[in-house]
Amino acid sequence: MPLLHPPLHLGDFPFLAVKALEFGLFKTYSILSISKILYSTRELVDRCGRRYDDTDLLIREFLERDPDSPRAEAALERMNAIHAHYNISNPDYLYVLCVFIVEPIRWVERFGFRSPHEKEKVAMHLRWKIIGEQMGIERIPQSYEEAAKYLDKYEEEYMVYADTNAQVANSTMELFLSIVPSFMHPVCEPAVHALCPPRLRRAMGYPDPPQLLVAFLEAVLVVAGGFVKYFLPPRWKPKRRTPVHPIAMSKHTVLYPTFHPFEQTYADGYKISELGPESLCPMNSR
Fold it and tell me: Hey, which of 19, 93, 164, 283 would disulfide with 35, CB 3.0 to 4.6 Å?
C-alpha cells in the first residue's frame, strides 16, 4: 500500500504538526483512566525523556514510510506488544487515536501559512484509521469530522482534574523545559500553560496565564506562519527523524535518529524491537 499523503510533519508543517502531537499527547494525560495507567508504570515519571523518544520513534517508524513496509509493521507489532500488558479500554484507545487525527489539523488551521486541504484531512483520517485497525481498535470514526466530534465529546466528559494527571504532566513539563536554561523556566512554564486550552489547564491543576500572554504567543505563531509563507522557499526534503535506510531490516538492525528533540537517548542507535520500557524488552535483546 503506497503512502496515502505525506504526513503534515514531513511536508509543509514539520514544526506545527510535531508540536500539535506533543501537546496532543499532553492532553491524553488529563484523562484519569489514562493517567492512572501511565503513573502506575512510572515510565513518564522516572524516565520521561526515554519514554518520549520511545513513543516518538515508534510512531515515526510507521508514519514516515508506507503502512505495509517491514519497518512500519515491526513498529506496530512492537507497540501492540507493549500495550497488551495494560488494561486499556477501547474508548481510551479511540480518544488517543482521534487526538492524532485531529490535533495536527487544528494547529495548522490556527497557525499554518495555509489552511489544510480537505484531501489532507481525509488522508490524515484514513492513515490513522488504518493504524487503528492494525491495533485492533473498534468502532473507529468513519471520517475526520466524526473523529473531531468524538474528541470534543470525550474531553467534555472525562477531562477533569486528578492527582495522577498532574504528576505525569509535571514530569513532561520538566522535559519540555529541559531545552532552555534553568533561569528561563519561570518565564517559559507560563508560556506552556498559555498554549494549553482552558479545560486542559484545569485538568492538570495549572493556573490560568495572563490573557495578554496567551494573545502574544498566538500572535507570534501566526506571524511565524506568515514569515514561512512569504520569506522561506518551499520545503523540498521531508524532515524525518527516522533514517530512510535500510528499507529491509531484522530485529538486530541498528537505526540512528537524524536528530534529538530533547535528550540524546539513542545517540548510539536503537532497535525497533527494544523501544519501550526496559522491563518489556525481549529477553534476548539486551
Answer: 164
State the DSSP code for 194. Answer: H
SS3 270: strand
> Cell 485492533 maps to which residue?
136
Could you read off the pLDDT of 97-142 as tens digits, one per residue? Answer: 999 999 999 999 999 999 999 999 999 999 999 999 999 999 999 9
Q: Is 189 exposed, middle or buried (0-12, 13-18, 19+ CB in 10 A)?
A: middle
Helices (H), 135-205: 144-158, 163-177, 185-195, 198-204
Joined together, the cell numbers standing for residue 132 give 487503528
Contact status, residue 209 vs residue 193, Cβ threshold 8 Å:
yes
How far is it between the farthest Cα atoms of the chain? Answer: 55
**Residue 175: burial class (beta carbons within 10 Å; 0-12, 13-18, 19+):** middle
**pLDDT tens-place string over residues 37-78:** 999 999 999 999 999 999 999 999 988 888 888 899 999 999
Per-residue pLDDT, 7: 61
Query: H helices of 12-89, where?
Result: 14-28, 32-41, 43-46, 48-63, 70-83
SS3 content of the chain, % helix, strand, coil (to 5): 65, 0, 35
* Residue 255 phi, psi dihedral angles, 5° rounding: -115, 150
**Residue type for 209, please?**
P
Residue 265 — very low, low, confident or very high, per pLDDT cuts 50/70/90?
Answer: very high
The grid coordinates listed for 163 are 492527582
- SS3 state at 57: helix
**Angle formed by the axes of helices 144-158 and 118-134, nearest 10°:** 70
Closest alpha carbon to 51 in 204, 271, 237, 266:
266
The helix/strand/coil state of 95 is helix
